[in-house]
Design brief:
By secondary structure, this protein is mainly α. 75% of the residues lie in helices and 0% in strands.
Length: 213
């Protein structure tokens, strides 16, 4: 998708320098791995930022992602079911059924300040979670300064970050690609072993791999 290429270009040319400047400001050094990890997660866009757990069977993991994605859309659109249905390109009744199970959360979404606030908190969580992985190699006092500056950094990133909105079908496709890519890597690209590990037939896995290449 052209939108994905545009996103990658913006992250490389505009967002990454902002992250690098913040590292110098708060840490006094540049850590390429830290910058790369934040940038890579942002490339999936905040809506597609999800943890891939290949210990969960493929079909179950896909269903869990679908639920999480719709939940994020509801949060982004402040609980407006019509807007979510339009963006996801699925029937409103499907969103209604899902929202019934999230009644309290949907009510909270409707009270949230704005979609920009939702995006900001999502980007901040990406920064915080990535920083958590570097706790053992960064000076605690400097790390604390970076945590405190994460909100301002999130706002700066969002000024440059283009909005990439995907239908549910497009989001599920991206999920499948990332899930199978990770599963194959964990199983040394052995299709039979990977298929068994994620609960798919080898023929089905091979067909999906061929589709996404």
């Amino acid at each position: 998708m052209d939108s994905n290429k545009d996103l990658e270009r913006v992250i490389q040319d505009k967002v990454k320098p902002i992250i690098d400047t913040s590292m110098q400001k708060f840490l006094g050094i540049s850590i390429k791995e830290l910058s790369a990890d934040i940038s890579d997660r942002l490339k999936r866009t905040p809506l597609l930022d999800f943890k891939i757990d290949t210990s969960v069977p493929f079909k179950k993991a896909k269903q869990l992602f679908k639920e999480e994605y719709i939940k994020k859309l509801l949060q982004l659109k402040q609980g407006n079911i019509s807007d979510v249905a339009k963006l996801a390109n699925i029937d409103r009744r499907s969103i209604h059924r899902f929202a019934k199970n999230l009644k309290k959360e949907v009510q909270k979404f409707r009270k949230d300040l704005s979609s920009e606030y939702t995006k900001e908190t999502t980007v901040k969580s990406i920064i915080d979670e990535t920083l958590d992985q570097f706790k053992d190699v960064i000076n605690p006092k400097r790390l604390e300064k970076f945590y405190k500056g994460a909100s301002d950094l999130s706002k700066e990133i969002l000024k440059e970050l283009p909005t990439v909105e995907l239908t549910l079908k497009e989001a599920l496709t991206e999920f499948e690609k990332e899930f199978l890519k990770k599963a194959l890597k964990e199983n040394l690209n052995n299709i039979s072993k990977t298929a068994k590990a994620v609960g798919l037939r080898a023929e089905t896995l091979f067909r999906k791999i061929k589709k996404y290449r």
